[in-house]
Design goal:
- With about 170 residues, this protein is an alpha/beta fold.
- The protein has a single domain, classed as Rossmann fold (3-Layer(aba) Sandwich).
- About 50% of the residues lie in helices and about 15% in strands.
- The protein contains seven helices and five strands, in the order E-H-E-H-H-E-H-E-H-H-E-H.
- Helix 1 runs parallel beside helix 7 and helix 5 crosses helix 6.
- The longest helix has 25 residues.
- It is globular and about 40 Å long.
């Protein structure tokens, strides 16, 4: 595991896993949210985002967490390992609410500057509908990479702990 892409719903724990796994494997961690979002929750210009993303994946060693469907293939192609946090919507929803309560109006360590934690109905709906709207797309996408990538699908927090324990053995 030298180039690891972590994907999954908001609230699944992508950033938390990236940080923990990066520490165990001594890999630099890249949180895509910190690069994509501009101050005040403004989206990046698409051309600039594509250029930034292509630079991020050029490194020899990294863990990158985030979905961003428009650039996901770039990341997955460059990765040697893909970790999909395929968690249920209830857990993800609970975690985004918990995260909001932990960082109300504050910027999380894995987020871009001047993008304080926020919670609104649209975001909650996105998290709730993620399995219905995106799960089949992720399954289709991963099927293209099965032949030449290590793909790890984790469906609960206990499996994350097992993965981190295995990383200790490396």
């Amino acid at each position: 595991m030298q180039r690891v892409a972590i994907i999954g719903s908001c609230g699944a724990g992508k950033s938390t896993l990236a940080k923990a796994l990066g520490g165990k494997l001594n890999l630099p961690v890249i949180h895509l949210d910190a690069y994509y979002w501009q101050p005040g929750w403004q989206e990046s210009n698409q051309d600039r985002w594509l250029e930034t993303h292509q630079k991020l994946v050029k490194g020899d060693r990294w863990i990158i967490d985030g979905n961003y469907g428009g650039t996901m293939d770039i990341r997955l192609t460059a990765a040697d390992t893909i970790i999909w946090l395929d968690f249920n919507r209830y857990l993800c929803l609970w975690r985004v609410i918990k995260r909001y309560l932990e960082y109300p109006g504050k910027v999380r360590p894995d987020m871009a500057a001047e993008c304080p934690e926020r919670l609104n109905w649209e975001f909650l709906q996105y998290v709730w509908n993620f399995p219905t709207l995106h799960r089949h797309r992720i399954i289709d996408k991963l099927s293209k990479y099965r032949a030449n990538k290590q793909i790890v699908v984790l469906q609960n927090p206990h499996q994350i702990l097992s993965l981190l324990d295995q990383a200790n053995d490396r």
